[in-house]
Amino acid sequence: MHRSHLFTKVGISGGGFLPLSAQDTAIQSAILPCVNVRLLHSAAALRRGTVWGGNMPRYTVHVRGEWLAVPCPHGTNTVGWLGKEAVRRYMKNKPDNGGFTSVEEVKFFVRRCKGLGLLDLDDTVEDALEDNEFVEVVIEGDIMSPDFIPSQPEGVHLYSKYREPEQYISLDGNSLTTQDLVNLGKGLYKIKLTPEAEAKVKQSREVIERIVKEQTVVYGITTGFGKFARTVIPNSKLMELQMNLVRSHSAGVGKPLTPERSRMLLALRINVLAKGYSGISLETLQQVIEAFNASCLPYIPEKGTVGASGDLAPLSHLALGLTGEGKMWSPKSGWADAKYVLEAHGLKPITLKPKEGLALINGTQMITSLGCEAVERASAIARQADIVAALTLEVLKGTTKAFDTDIHAVRPHRGQAEVAFRFRSLLDSDHHPSEIAESHRFCDRVQDAYTMRCCPQVHGVVNDTIAFVKDIMTTEINSATDNPMVFAERAETISGGNFHGEYPAKALDYLAIGVHELAAISERRIERLCNPSLSELPAFLVTEGGLNSGFMIAHCTAAALVSENKALCHPSSVDSLSTSAATEDHVSMGGWSARKALRVIEHVEQVLAIELLAACQGIEFLRPLRTTTPLEKVYDLVRSVVRPWMKDRFMAPDIEAAHRLLVEQKVWEVAEPYIEKYRREHIPESRPGSPTAFSLGSLERKTHDGHNHRHHSEL
């Protein structure tokens, strides 16, 4: 067993740090009394690399909406002392002392901003806190202020085990993929620019510097914005112009974007700036990259963009935080004033130079970053919908005849053919023997309901829709969407309309409409599983019906989600409202297109999670018969997180567990090897006789045999 080690400073030969266990330190202290052995104050101090008496540690403390920097002169000061000192400074800043007569009368408790963990007031700060940690003093009797921002935003559980990434993605503005962007959102990579991108950024900035030097009138650089485009601004106020632009346009409302989505938005804006058509300086762009790499994420409300001229409101909030104003979040700090968060990470606020405010806020990156998440999640759930539907088909004792290659060859849509192939690879009994299929080999059913038979046609067009949208998103994330555009090779700026979000807006409306159908058809399959007259299974998939309700309300939940999706699928981009005094007289409304597409996709995931649970529950009533090998693997995966439904219990956690399997693509991971093996090995398609497929050959055999033998219809 390895012993944990502390570092002990030994005053010999110039010192140095030697790893010694606590026991070793005690022994050395006893046997080497003449050697100066000084144990550092605590493990926390060691992690900080701070010794009191050197650099004085400081803490950022939140008191009633105010952020205060409180230096701590001694490591032995208590958390209670820190709270009192913060209250004292708060009172000092208020004309009425904040309503208090003295610090001593104020009763409070202290908690970390990150995670909201309560701190013991008697603990020393060196033992309880990291240097420059963010804490909050909560005064007894206070109610939550109207502008209170929870320390940990929605989705922050994804950061509970956040580790600063070591790998980098090099951005050049031309080769980012939708999956790359999602991975950047997850915090899997840092960012750096390619040398080619750096050169282009420098060249475009030289054009801007020349415009300023020559006092040329150019929109957004030496003029106002929108309706004020004809107002010329003097050189002495060009930096103020950019800061005013960012402040005034930071007018969004609603919940802040989650850390993942904020990271995606920031990363995508960096990629667009890296193209070298925005006029931002390399120095400023490197500061933006440093903030991204430190995971310093501004407070960005999700509502407020009309999708032309770009996503002005959310991108302005993004820029505002980078300038040290507004709120900002990092895994280290939780929410705090942006200037404190940046300082805690050793970063300086950006000082905007001419054109740089406009360069940071003009573009479609809010629509497109959310759209990239939507298209990647849509791809994941579409693949897994085929697996879930195949499992349902097995439980309902359906036929595979509808997936015959010849049927789909004569209607050769790519998505339709791929879905039919997946069904064959999962259900082909000759290669993955199914005892369930064998049990109804000679049944008299002629054909299945559309919800099973037409899966290739319905699921297939969803796949083709996703491919279409992904192509548009890939083009958009590698496009320059500023105005004006800076063309260094022509030494010219040109005003245009690349900021208009119609492309991603229309595509994401289409995505929502397409992906919704996976939930619509899934809900009908859930009905068939739960309805005993259609499934030949116990009503609502539970024993002792009446005493137990089983999947009755789970199906209602699926129906409710499908109904809600029908309203959400109304295209946002068919609407337009004139803004900016009719200067911006047609807009895309793409921000809502993106947000509702994500909501539709989440509902689709949840409906399919319910179907997955219902299909696995149906398997229980067919035991001891087993399905095909890949579908048994799927069943085993589900049963690893959700036990069989023997009697009624709290169902919501089961739905959430199944939903998590789909979001994390675990269902695809267990089935994909069998699908790809089937593809690689070109396994011949089995075509047993069936009442669903009349052939002269079978008629001749029947006549010859002199009897009407029913052939296998269910494989």
TrEMBL record:
<dbReference type="Pfam" id="PF12053">
    <property type="entry name" value="Par3_HAL_N_term"/>
</dbReference>
<protein>
    <recommendedName>
        <fullName>Histidine ammonia-lyase</fullName>
        <ecNumber>4.3.1.3</ecNumber>
    </recommendedName>
</protein>
<dbReference type="InterPro" id="IPR008948">
    <property type="entry name" value="L-Aspartase-like"/>
</dbReference>
<dbReference type="GO" id="GO:0006548">
    <property type="term" value="P:L-histidine catabolic process"/>
</dbReference>
<keyword id="KW-0369">Histidine metabolism</keyword>
<dbReference type="GO" id="GO:0005737">
    <property type="term" value="C:cytoplasm"/>
</dbReference>
<keyword id="KW-0597">Phosphoprotein</keyword>
<comment type="pathway">
    <text>Amino-acid degradation; L-histidine degradation into L-glutamate; N-formimidoyl-L-glutamate from L-histidine: step 1/3.</text>
</comment>
<dbReference type="InterPro" id="IPR024083">
    <property type="entry name" value="Fumarase/histidase_N"/>
</dbReference>
<feature type="region of interest" description="Disordered">
    <location>
        <begin position="682"/>
        <end position="715"/>
    </location>
</feature>
<feature type="domain" description="Par3/HAL N-terminal">
    <location>
        <begin position="68"/>
        <end position="135"/>
    </location>
</feature>
<keyword id="KW-0456">Lyase</keyword>
<comment type="similarity">
    <text>Belongs to the PAL/histidase family.</text>
</comment>
<dbReference type="InterPro" id="IPR001106">
    <property type="entry name" value="Aromatic_Lyase"/>
</dbReference>
<dbReference type="GO" id="GO:0004397">
    <property type="term" value="F:histidine ammonia-lyase activity"/>
</dbReference>
<dbReference type="InterPro" id="IPR021922">
    <property type="entry name" value="Par3/HAL_N"/>
</dbReference>
<dbReference type="InterPro" id="IPR005921">
    <property type="entry name" value="HutH"/>
</dbReference>
<dbReference type="InterPro" id="IPR022313">
    <property type="entry name" value="Phe/His_NH3-lyase_AS"/>
</dbReference>
<dbReference type="Pfam" id="PF00221">
    <property type="entry name" value="Lyase_aromatic"/>
</dbReference>
